[in-house]
């Protein structure tokens, strides 16, 4: 992509309405524009990152054997009246009346709708286990939308729903989700710690939230510092292997890690003092096992092996897809701008032409652009006539992992300059070598 043909409305000034760094940087980098409180347009750069995050989430869900579908954003109130949550949910639910005076709502979550799909089409235990998920916009009329996409009113969520015959099977589904989430967040360059949490309006007994540690996080968290040393890494996992998934869960949840809602001071004080940590975190996901809370009132039963109907055991599992952009930036930036992890970066590399209009510099940049494209990589080529300083500032702000600087002086010696955004280190080398380094 040539910058001269792109739409990247970067801001020079720091927007005064943004209180935290990720919100400021997303506005300055031209990634989002507020449409109304807690509702955003995703400008091209932000949209690219959002899609990358979504792709990683999809890939890891499919790897775990979960099946994508898509449910609508608008729901009929009838299902929610059946489950009893229409009244219980409160003012966070945006209620709408259509022209025929039917009560509708903009879905804040989809337990009822998925349970309805399930009961309409599944009748035998032989069709279990089943995990269906979607990535869809949600609406919650938050009292205080703030921090940009971190606490929006309209936001993108992955929500998955598990259906099993027994509690034991449902707990395997829970463990499988925990494992798939660990992989998902690590691929985005994040450490998200599973912490024992409270189930809130979703209900249920077993639940963990995934938290990214950050000073600007809205949750207070308490944990054993040993937990930050745990990495999922690239270990092989068989998602059907009950023991293997359970052992990962045990490894990642045996140390003390809780949000303030479930914090237990006495238990916390059993950790050696030098390992006790009190900090803040951003909730980027949550998994729930809630048994028959919805299947019972809504009649989601299957015929068991003995021919008798049994309500299915369910769980629901969410990832805050749009919130993750903010969380990633909170975890990865410096005073010049964003530093994208390779897995989610909007472009793989920025090419800066120091002298647009110079035939040799133009040709060298065009050749680099072509080489990357041929390799399936996505370069952003700054072919504008801005000053070098401004070009560098924009590249630093938008946080691409690599920058290649091309100018007539270097080209005379056959070299370009390759700079790592993360370390700030630069090195001169022939263009082909720079391509090979990034590819
Ligand atoms: P929070 O405690 O932050 O209000 P929640 O516990 O109400 O979140 P869940 O019902 O667990 O949210 O939804 C799953 C995920 O969706 C959350 O872990 C979070 O990452 C994301 N999410 C929830 N509310 C918002 C929001 N208002 N804006 C952006 N993302 C959100
Ligand atoms: Mg909430
Ligand atoms: Mg929460
Ligand atoms: Mg939650």
UniProtKB/TrEMBL annotation:
Gene Ontology terms: biological process: prolyl-tRNA aminoacylation
UniProt cross-references to Gene3D superfamilies, sorted A to Z: Anticodon-binding domain, Bira Bifunctional Protein, Domain 2
One GO CC term on file: cytosol
Main subcellular localisation: cytoplasm
Alphabetical keyword list: Aminoacyl-tRNA synthetase, ATP-binding, Cytoplasm, Ligase, Nucleotide-binding, Protein biosynthesis
An example Gene Ontology molecular-function term: ATP binding
Localisation per UniProt entry: Cytoplasm
Keyword Cell division in annotation: no
Residue intervals of the Aminoacyl-transfer RNA synthetases class-II family profile domain: 33-341
EC numbers, comma separated: 6.1.1.15
InterPro entries named in the record: aa-tRNA-synt_IIb, aa-tRNA-synth_II, aa-tRNA-synth_II/BPL/LPL, Anticodon-bd, Anticodon-bd_dom_sf, Pro-tRNA-ligase_IIa, Pro-tRNA-synth_IIa_bac-type, Pro-tRNA_synthetase
Catalytic activity, as annotated: tRNA(Pro) + L-proline + ATP = L-prolyl-tRNA(Pro) + AMP + diphosphate
Pfam families for this protein: HGTP_anticodon (PF03129), tRNA-synt_2b (PF00587)
Self-association and partners: Homodimer.
Family, per entry: Belongs to the class-II aminoacyl-tRNA synthetase family. ProS type 2 subfamily.
PANTHER family for this protein: MITOCHONDRIAL RIBOSOME PROTEIN L39/PROLYL-TRNA LIGASE FAMILY MEMBER (PTHR42753), PROLINE--TRNA LIGASE (PTHR42753:SF2)
Role according to the record: Catalyzes the attachment of proline to tRNA(Pro) in a two-step reaction: proline is first activated by ATP to form Pro-AMP and then transferred to the acceptor end of tRNA(Pro).
Name by which UniProt lists this protein: Proline--tRNA ligase
Protein source organism: Pseudooceanicola nanhaiensis
């Amino acid at each position: 992509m040539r910058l001269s043909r792109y739409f990247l409305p970067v801001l020079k000034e720091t927007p005064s309405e943004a209180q935290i760094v990720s919100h400021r940087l997303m506005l300055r980098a031209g990634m989002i524009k507020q449409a109304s409180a807690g509702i955003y347009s995703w400008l091209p750069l932000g949209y690219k990152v959002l899609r990358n995050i979504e792709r990683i989430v999809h890939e890891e869900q499919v790897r775990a054997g979960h099946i994508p579908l898509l449910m609508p954003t608008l729901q009929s109130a009838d299902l929610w009246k059946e489950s009893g949550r229409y009244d219980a949910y409160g003012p966070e639910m945006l209620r709408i009346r259509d022209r025929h005076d039917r009560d509708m709502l903009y879905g804040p979550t989809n337990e009822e709708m998925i349970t309805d799909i399930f009961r309409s089409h599944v009748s035998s235990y032989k069709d279990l286990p089943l995990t269906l998920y979607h990535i869809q916009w949600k609406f919650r009329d938050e009292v205080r939308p703030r921090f940009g996409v971190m606490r929006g009113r309209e936001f993108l969520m992955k929500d998955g729903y598990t259906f099993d015959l027994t509690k034991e099977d449902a707990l395997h589904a829970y463990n499988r989700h925990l494992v798939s989430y660990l992989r998902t967040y690590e691929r985005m360059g994040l450490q998200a710690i599973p912490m024992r949490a409270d189930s809130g309006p979703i209900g249920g007994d077993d639940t963990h939230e995934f938290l990214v540690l950050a000073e600007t996080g809205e949750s207070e968290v308490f944990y054993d510092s040993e937990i930050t040393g745990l990495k999922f890494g690239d270990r092989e996992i068989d998602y059907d292997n009950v023991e293997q998934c359970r052992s990962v869960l045990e490894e990642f949840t045996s140390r003390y890690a809780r949000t303030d809602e479930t914090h237990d001071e006495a238990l916390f004080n059993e950790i050696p003092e030098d390992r006790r940590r009190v900090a803040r975190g951003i909730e980027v996901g949550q998994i729930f096992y809630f048994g028959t809370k919805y299947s019972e009132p809504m009649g989601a039963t299957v015929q068991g092996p003995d021919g008798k109907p049994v309500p299915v055991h369910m769980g629901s599992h969410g990832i805050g897809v749009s919130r993750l952009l903010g969380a990633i930036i909170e975890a990865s930036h410096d005073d010049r701008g964003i530093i994208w992890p390779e897995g989610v970066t909007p472009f793989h590399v920025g090419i800066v032409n120091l002298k647009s209009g110079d035939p040799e510099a133009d040709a060298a940049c065009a050749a680099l652009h072509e080489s990357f494209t041929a390799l399936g990589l996505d370069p952003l080529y700054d072919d504008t006539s801005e000053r070098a300083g401004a070009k560098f500032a924009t590249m630093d702000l938008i946080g691409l992992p690599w920058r290649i600087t091309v100018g007539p002086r270097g080209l005379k010696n056959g070299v370009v300059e390759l700079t790592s955004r993360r370390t700030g280190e630069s090195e001169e080398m022939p263009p082909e070598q720079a391509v090979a380094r990034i590819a």
